[in-house]
Amino acid sequence: RCFPHVVNIAVQTGLKHLTDVDNLIKPGEDITSALLENLDYLDALRGDVVSAARQVVTACRASGQHREDLSRVIKEGYELGDWTKEDLGDVTLLRDVVTRWSSIFLMVDRLLELYPAISRLFQQDKYEDLRKHELSNIQLQVLADIRLYLAFFHVVQEEVSA
């Protein structure tokens, strides 16, 4: 097997175990204590936050109008001084592809970058039906932690593939 394929299998397995917290909970282990001290975090992991992120991306990319409106919100944020082009680029959300683990990293990374604009988009009256996809602060924290986990593999694979 080639190295990227092995990395893909390792990352997919790791992600599966990260969100399968019921199998992680064993009395007396440090991770158990930490998770039990933060039940909101535990619930976010149980709720498959990567799937929730995927739903946000799908909703925002569902039509050309959605993509255009997100871009407009981003540009308005520049004009209002709410964010800069360095902080939040005028770019599109990325979908993940099952056979490319790194696409999960890229999807989560881009979603976290654009989330302030996505949140503002969802507050508009015409996007009221998409509010059900809004992520909580704890879900965003879990996604940020998952991004850190995936970043290691992303950097390694980029170096090896270069």
Cα(first) to Cα(last) distance is 18 Å
Arithmetic mean pLDDT: 86
Main sheet: strands, sense, barrel: none
Uncertain runs: none
Order of helices and strands: HHHHHHH
Structural Rg: 17 Å
What percent of residues are in strands?
under 5%
Count of distinct strands: 0
Q: Give the overall form.
A: globular
Percent helix range: 55-70%
Structural class: mainly alpha
| Number of helical regions | 7
Protein described:
The protein has helices at 3-19, 30-37, 39-46, 49-60, 64-80, 101-122, 137-161. The chain has 162 residues and is mainly alpha-helical. The two termini are 18 Å apart. Helix 4 packs across helix 6 (101-122) and helix 5 packs across helix 6. The longest helix has 25 residues, at 137-161.
Short description:
The chain has 162 residues and is mainly alpha-helical. It has helices at 3-19, 30-37, 39-46, 49-60, 64-80, 101-122, 137-161.
Tag the structure with descriptive keywords.
mainly alpha, 0% strand, 162 residues, 7 helices
Layout of SSEs?
Layout: H1 3-19, H2 30-37, H3 39-46, H4 49-60, H5 64-80, H6 101-122, H7 137-161
